[in-house]
Each structure stands twice: as C-alpha cells, then as structure tokens.
Amino acid sequence: MSDQPVRKIIHIDMDAFYASVEQRDFPKYRDKPVIVGGSPDGRGVVAAASYEVRKFGVHSAMPAAKAIRLCPHAIFVKPRFKVYRKVSKQIREIFFQFTDLVEPLSLDEAYLDVTENHIDLPSATLIAQKIRKLIKEKTNLTASAGVAHNKFLAKIASDLDKPDGLSVILPADANDFLKKLNIGKFHGVGEATEAKMNALDIYTGEDLLQWSEVDLVQEFGKVGRHYYRIVRGIDHREVKPHRIRKSIGKERTFTEDINDLGWVNNFLSELAQEISESMKNKEVAGKTVTLKVRYADFETISRSTSFSHYINEAEDISKTAIQLLEETEVGDRKVRLLGITLSNLNLGQAGRYKQLEIPFNNTTTDPHK
Fold it and tell me: Where does Mg(2+) bind (predicted)?
C-alpha cells in the first residue's frame, strides 16, 4: 500500500448531528421525520435530516420543496447553531483526552491520529469504542467511527455502518476492500462524477484500477491523479490540528437544477448564516466575499468583492453574495451548485487570529476593479 510508517487514524462522524440534537432536546421530535433548515413553504434547503426522514429519500443539500414532496409530514426545525457549537465543544474535549492530534472538519466530524495516544493503548479500535461510549454518556448522542491507516480509508469506514457504528479497515484488507467498493462510495466521487465514470464502464474500484494515471488525468483533469491514488489506498496526508485557514466557506450541490431566483436568494441567506456561525465559532472575520456558481451545464464561475474592514455577520455576507449574484446569469440559467467563501482573514503572522476590527460602514469596493 505504501512505504510510509503505518499510522492509526480514526474518523469520528456524528449521526445526523443537528437533527439528533433537536430530537434529544425536544421529546416531541423523537422518532419523527425531522428536517433542520428550510421551511414548510418549500423555501430554503435541507441542512440536516433525521434518519426517520432519510427513509423517504430526503438528505442534506436537498431543496426543501423536494423534501416536502418526498415526505409531506416532515417536521421543519430552525437551526440552533449556538447549541450545536456547545455540543461540538463537549465532543472535542473528549477527543483531547486521547490525543492532541485532532483535526476538526466541521462541528460534527473530525480526524484523530492515535498512533501515539495519552492512554498508551495500542488498539485504535478500542480507542474508537471508548470515544463513542464517552460521547454517548456525555451528550446522549451517537457517533459512528472509522478506523484505518490513513484518512481516506478512515473516512470511508465511518460511513459503512451508520448510524451508531464502528468499522475497521486493516492495512492487509484495504486492497480487496477497495476493489469491491462501489465507485459512488469513494469519498470525493460525487453524483456527476459517478455518472461519468459509469459511462466509462467504471462501476467499482476494480474497474478504476484498470485505468492508468495518464488516462485518468486526460479524462478527468488534475483530479484524475487523486482517483489513481485513492483506489490504491494511497493517502499520505497527516492529521493536522493547527491548519492555517486562508478562507472559510460553504457550498452545496443540489439534487435538482434550480432556476428560481427567489429560492436562490433565500438559500444564500441561509448559507450566509451557517458561514457566520462558523466564523464566530473560530473568532475570525474576513474582508473578501466570493460567490461561486456552477450552472447546469457544469460551467463554473466566481464573483468577488472586498470590504475595507472585516466582516462576519450573516446579514453582511448574504447582502454581498446577493449583490454579486446580479453579475451572473442565475435566474436565466439553471444552477446545480452555489457557494460563498470569505477570505482575506484577520490572521497574524503566526497564523493566529487577530482581534476583530469594528466595521464603521458597509461600503464595498467596486468588484470590477
């Protein structure tokens, strides 16, 4: 698999995190089809879906209008990000009982390197069991875990036995496991890429193995190198607990192409709220807002503008993104992906966040300059 030293990596992924917190805190939602985000009138997008509503085909990033068609009796709940952040902090405190090498990916998932750990336990599987037990005891929520010798395989493993599952991929088993794996289960292969691969008769890892790196690059561009490596279980990325963030953003790929401009504006406002919560959680702000748009024909564009001061309020982010939207063809052309990113963050030379500057005005610079 690799000439690198064998590491012990755990990927922890909370089960339907936002929805599970709501069901925990409000007994009336338990065992009910709960959707966090969006609204019963069909506006917005699904931020999280309980397992009860997933049975109807509802999942995150789906337009609320479609979710209602699939499950008319679904219960819509407004996100409570402050609560989610508090619970996420509790969970991370558990992680640090075992290792300092913790790389959070979001509020509800993280990588842990337990090759060396605080309790001197040689088994990553046993550590994963202990972590899941402590999370349940501390938060009354369930987590799924994947254990492997690299991040890519650990990420796949955590999704194999959801919810409340634990899966292990041993180094000796990795090659056979990847050969049998459906191509759509490979982390990083989305629906559009899966369809393209299927059109090329690539349905499993074994099919992908037949392709050379040169041919994959020719067919898929630079990401072809990534596909060549992951099907061979090659991933040398380290768990990095102190990554310097150059930007903070979120994007969503929709299950249906969207051409309703009103819906898009509402979605951008919801996305801005999520980004604002994330930035405040990290005590960071940015000066540059970038809107990303991918049209139905996969053409991808971006539009940016910069402030003279730092911002992290949802209203500032959403207003700017909606202004940038006017420079696109959204409304005339269908879109399949939208994203907002804030960059030019208030970082010091050592990668630490500097004290926020207070914005005295809301004037943006000309985005065309």
Answer: 13, 108
